[in-house]
Amino acid sequence: MRTQILTGATGLVGEEFIKLFSMPRHAKLIIVARKHPDFNIPKGVEIRLVSDFFDRSLLRAALQEGNEMICCIGTTIAKAGSKESFEKTDVGIIRELAHVCSELNYYGFHYVSSIQASIESSTFYLQCKGRAEAEIQFHPFKRISILRPSLLLGKRREFRFGEKIGMMLTKLFPFFLIGPFKEMRPIKAETVAKCLLYRAMSDNEDTLILESEEIKSFTTLSINF
Fold first, then answer.
1. How far apart are CA 202 and CA 113, in angstroms?
2. How far is CA 49 from CA 26, 70, 131, in A?
3. Confidence band of 218 (pLDDT split at 50, 70, 90)
4. Does residue 13 carry a pLDDT above 90?
5. Would you say residue 26 has pLDDT above 60?
6. Are strands 46-49 and 68-71 parallel, antiparallel or unpaired?
7. Which residues, other chains included, contact 21 with Cβ-Cβ below 8 Å and sequence gap of 6+?
8. pTM score, two decimals?
9. Distance (Å) of CA 122 to CA 127, 169, 190
């Protein structure tokens, strides 16, 4: 049985990923988080609390028994309070997770990044996402998945002003999202979660960087689950 570790469980994609375990599966899911999610967790899903993701001894203990990391960790600069705090979460924690997972010989690391993420981006947010991607690819995981979704659709438990504006604009002007702007089309968080699950349950040994429209193609594939 494959054991998947989920970090970032309280985010939109993380919660959708948990829902995929609402029925008995031939896989085990362990949530590693700072606090217990404030929503119902399916029976059989284990929760391990870690007070400090930068304490490698604590993190190593929490990640024991896993072999596939599902990383949905991500915040915003507004929520973090500063660029420094944002960087600590969106780059620093990913760095720690990748390092410890590599030490524990995880087969795969699957990460939800962002559309247009690039270490060379002039936008701080996208640059940090690109750096997080690089931290993961530095390690010799057999399977690496980097998903770069555009605007996520779903019922988020926290309010994000930018996402609300983006949703309104895409509903008002959907005809603009064609041609070179096709990649900006919103994507369901559920679709991203299903892609993560497919990759985590596959036996492929490769590195895939999937742009938003490419992520959608995985919903038509069967999952050995």
1. 20
2. 24, 16, 26
3. confident
4. yes
5. yes
6. unpaired
7. 27, 29, 42, 44, 45
8. 0.88
9. 7, 24, 30
Residue 211: burial class (beta carbons within 10 Å; 0-12, 13-18, 19+): middle
Q: Which residues of 23-55 are buried (b: 16+ CB within 10 A; e: fewer)?
A: eebebbbbbbbeeebeeebeeebeebebeebee
pLDDT-derived band of residue 185, with 50, 70 and 90 as boundaries? confident
Burial 188-209 (b: 16+ CB within 10 A, else e): bbbbbbbbbbbbbbbeeeeebe
What pLDDT score does 46 carry?
97
pLDDT by residue (tens digit) across 30-49?
Answer: 999 999 999 999 999 999 99
Instruction: List the alpha helices (DSSP H) in the chain.
Output: 12-19, 56-62, 77-80, 83-87, 94-103, 124-137, 161-172, 189-201, 212-216
* Residues in CB range of 78: below 8 A, 6 or more apart: 161
For 50, which DSSP code? -
Give the burial class of 172: count Cβ atoms within 10 A of its Cβ; 0-12 exposed, 13-18 middle, 19 or more buried. exposed
Domains and CATH numbers, the chain: 2-219 (3.40.50.720)
Averaged pLDDT for residues 72-101: 96
DSSP assigned state of 160: -
Q: What is the pLDDT of residue 25?
A: 78
The answer to whether the CB of 70 falls within 8 A of the CB of 7 is yes
Classify 17 as helix, strand or coil: helix
Q: What is the pLDDT at residue 24?
A: 73
